[in-house]
Design brief:
Distance between the termini: 23 Å
Largest sheet: none
Number of domains: 1
Radius of gyration: 16 Å
Shape: flat
Helix content: over 70%
Structural class: mainly alpha
Strand content: under 5%
Number of helices: 4
Number of strands: 0
């Protein structure tokens, strides 16, 4: 559970780093948007690296990546609808549903443990 919590927190920072300037920094010069984004992304790395270290072994590398992608989509849905004021259209929901189905298949069957 620590892994998923850390991945969620890291994804919140990364979403703000990548897309936050669209909501609150549109008037900034590009260099400032890049610099602020990099500083926020540093915090993301400080959470993502421990999340992956803690989770590897409990989850495979493939599973960690799939968890990260599902968390990214959930965080982005919240960000896009609240901060960017975008509507969540049916086709986006259907696309996310298919990605959720892919995540199900990644975890539904036993996979070999990672080699040491």
């Amino acid at each position: 559970m620590n892994t998923i919590l850390l991945l969620t927190l890291s994804n919140i920072f990364m979403t703000v780093a990548w897309y936050g300037h669209l909501a609150y920094g549109r008037a900034w010069p590009l260099w400032k948007a890049i610099l602020v984004s990099w500083l926020i992304a540093l915090l993301e790395y400080c959470l993502a690296v421990p999340a992956n270290r803690l989770g590897y072994g409990e989850f495979s590398g493939f599973q960690l990546k799939i968890i990260q992608e599902v968390v990214t989509l959930l965080v982005f849905i919240g960000f896009a609808t609240t901060m960017l004021k975008e509507k969540l259209a049916w086709n986006y929901l259907l696309a996310f549903l298919f990605m959720g189905l892919a995540a199900f298949f990644a975890f539904a069957f036993k996979v070999p443990a990672p080699s040491a």
